[in-house]
Structure formats: C-alpha cells, structure tokens
Amino acid sequence: MNILLVTPAPPRSQKGNRITALRWRRILRELGHRVALELPDSVVKGDLLIALHARHSAEAILNFAQRCPRKPIVLALTGTDLYRDIQRSAAARRSLELADRLIILQPEGQQELPDRLHEKVRVIYQSATFTGTSPTPLRTVFEVCVVGHLRPVKDPFRCAYAARQLPQSSRIRVVHIGAALTADMKQRAQREMVHNKRYRWLGELPRWQTRRRLARSRLLVLTSRMEGGANVITEAITADVPVLASRISGSIGLLGRDYPGYFDPGDTRGLAQLLERVEASAPDYRELQRHCQQRKRLFQPAREQQSWRKLLHELTCTK
C-alpha cells in the first residue's frame, strides 16, 4: 500500500509525536509498504492515512476523507487528544468520527472515549530496544533522570522541587534532559540550577545521548499532568531503569494499576518521600525493578510490528 503518515511535529523535532512517527514509518516499511511521512498541510492521495493528533491533524483527516472516500483512516490519539482536546474541540471530535480505527498507546485511554467508539479502538504499545552494554550507574551519587521538554503539561520542575526537600544526607542528583520551549522556561531552569545544587538541566540532547544518560540512571521520574503513553517509560523499562511516575491514566496504562512507584500529580512532598524511600531502601528499589521487569514484554518490537500487521489486515479486509 501507499501509506500517508501524518504528524504535526516537524522534521528534526525531538517531540514524542515525531519519534513515534519515525518508528512507525520504519515498521510499516518493514511490512512491505511505501510510506510518506508528511506534515498535516501536505496531505495528498494514498491508500491509507495514519494521522497522529486528532486536533492538529484534523484538516488533513477531513481532506483525505473527501479526496479518498473509500480509503481507510487511522487516527493515533495523543495525551492532549484524550485528556483535553476531544472535550473542547469540535474539529478533534470530527476526527474521531471520520477515522476507521483509533489507536491508543495504553488501554486506560479507552475510558476517555464514548462507548459507541470503542469498537474502533486498538491498543498498540510503543516498543523500544537498548543495544550495547548498559552504562554503569555512578557510584558517588544516586542519579535520577527527567526526560521531557520544558512545557507546563509536563510539570517540568516538580522533581527539582522535590529534590530540594530531601535530607542533607541524600545522594540524589536530578539530571533533566529536554528543550526549553519558551524563554521563561529557560530562565526558570537556569535559576533552579543556581539555587538547587541537586538539579542539573542539560537542555536538548541527541536521541542516542539521551538514551545513554537514561540507561545510566538509577531512576526515571515522569512528573507529567497529561500523557497518552510516554515513550520514555518504555525506553526506561527496556533499559532496566525503574520509574517513578505521577498517577495519571497514561502512565497507569503502561505501568499497571498496582505499580508501587506513583505519586499524585503536583505533589512535591509525596514525590520527595518516594525518592527518599527508594534511595534508602534496597527492597523498595528491587520491588520497582520487579514490576518493571514484568511489564517489559509489552514493549518488544516484534509485538508492536505484529499489532500493525493485524490492524492493516483488518482494514484491507473490511474497507
């Protein structure tokens, strides 16, 4: 098939949507299809449209539906789709109706959709692999990694604020990787480094460097207020790095409802207590490792490829 894959994240972007689109393009090509990766305003005719983001790709979805009325549309729903835009945006809701299939990245997301759309929903877990020798964690500090651009929805300084509350004896150091998307966020990160000796902001790094720093860390901390299914959790688990995460639907769907490493969104004190306990208690740390190891099978590349093969077979048989 000639597949059009649309993402609002531009070329060379390190945003999650672009990373997901690039991986899906590779998978679809491995399955034997021709794939054009486009921005929403570049849509032309094709045998199938796969669009990321219900609101930002809404016009592309509508245009494809009008130009190619007999061709299937697959819509991949992001965190802002599921937990904000489909409640507020008529264009996003129109995209739900036009799509033949709705992809979510973790099963909890289905609860945000009307019951009548559930038959369209397919869960495709994002995969990751870590190749080569895992870096040895630093011995002098307990390194904690935060990976994410500095955006309000990510609550980017929550881990830094929690680190301020740790006892003087703690060896925790927070390393934050991600671009500052506004001048104000950049200034806040720089001020935080001046006043908080446990916090270091590295800015945006090449993807391979980010993954190496993550793999070297003792923990990944995800503080987001909204996520569709953060790929960095997948990358941490496949690199055998345990996770502490805000208790939001997108993370629960990846880590499981009984995962012991949650804190309430925005709860600085709760995160500080969790960090202190996990650093001090080897049994608590091993319990996080055990739970993450049990989830690892969900994020294998072969599983993601098989999910796509099954979905494309459905569409070619029914459209």
- Give the domain tally: 2
Give the helix level as a range of percent: 40-55%
Sequence stretches where pLDDT stays below 50 over 5 or more residues: none
**Helix/strand order, N-terminal first:** EHEEHEHHEEEHEHEHEHEHEHHH
Main CATH class of the largest domain: Alpha Beta
Shape summary: elongated
- Broad structural category: alpha/beta
The fraction of residues assigned to DSSP E strands is 15-25%
Task: Tell me what you see in this structure.
Helix 2 runs parallel beside helix 4. The chain contains twelve helices and twelve strands. Helix content is 42%, strand content 17%. The radius of gyration is 20 Å and the shape is elongated. With 319 residues, it is an alpha/beta fold. The protein folds into two domains: 143 residues, Glycogen Phosphorylase B (Rossmann fold, 3-Layer(aba) Sandwich), CATH 3.40.50.2000; 158 residues, 3-Layer(aba) Sandwich (Rossmann fold).
Descriptive labels:
319 residues, alpha/beta, Rossmann fold, 2 domains, six-stranded parallel beta sheet, 42% helix
Summary of the model, kept short:
42% of the residues lie in helices and 17% in strands.
Ordered list of secondary-structure elements with their pairings:
Blueprint: E1 2-6, H1 16-30, E2 34-38, E3 48-52, H2 58-67, E4 73-76, H3 79-88, H4 90-98, E5 101-104, E6 121-123, E7 142-147, H5 158-164, E8 172-177, H6 183-195, E9 199-203, H7 207-216, E10 219-222, H8 231-238, E11 243-246, H9 249-255, E12 262-263, H10 268-280, H11 282-295, H12 301-318
Parallel strand pairs: 1-2, 1-3, 3-4, 4-5, 5-6, 7-8, 7-10, 8-9, 10-11, 11-12
